[in-house]
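Prompt: Have a read of the protein record below and flag anything odd:
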Amino acid sequence: MKTIDGKSLAAKMRGEIKDGVEALAKETGVIPALAVILVGDNPASVSYVTAKEKACKEAGMASREIRMPAETSEKELLETVRSLNEDASVHGILVQLPLPEHIRENAVIDAISPEKDVDGFSPVNVGKMMIGEECFLPCTPHGIIKLIEFAGMDIAGKHAVVIGRSNIVGKPVAALLARRETNATVTLCHTGTPDIARFTREADIVVVATGRPGTLTGDMLKPGAVVIDVGVNRIADAAKPKGFRLVGDADFESCSRVASAITPVPGGVGPMTITMLLWNTLESARRFARLTGCTTAEKMV
């Protein structure tokens, strides 16, 4: 069994991204810039935004953090998004979710220009992804595809089962696996699926993203399957300094005895999300440079 090291792949890709940032700046003077809006002080969101800022700095990108109080109105937030849409020095816009209950997430996502939607959440980019047009792909699902390829599996012709139908992971990763470039046959399982194991036992690839520990166990797997575990769950553990430990949605011990490769938690899917955010931001800056006649820089391969 092989452990799929997301940290290693992320480090490799971030090195390539850093080289791309340096080359773009040298050729055109354009420095990729990501603006992140944080509304309120949710501890998990603050930690994630801090990690994004650090990643941008390490990649040589400009990072602009806009912190707004939890009492910010939807109108005020939308006005901030629109001003960033019009700012030519900003190539990517990210509004950290979740938002306070009085702000409609869909309204805010819809307001972000598709050309700067480096999270890949806007209806325009989601629609383009579904029909196979060029667009910004959602970060975690795109990172999952990279991890499967990194594990050495040729996705084409394989049967992939995705457990979970969230708009952030489940649905988009199912769509990406089924695209012509990847060409898998995809089954999407969810809370309405009566016998998930019936499908996972036939799968070459299983992506589990339910937010529930123990969703996938070794007896549910086909020998040699590749398992991508997206879940991050806290389990009480008095032996740990913080009183808890992190586990995924898959039972790692039993699954690792059957799978040919599996992502750990932490250190699997997690490092790839911010990496693909940087990837999209660099690509957005390259598109801007091409459109303004600054460069003929090629896309990353």
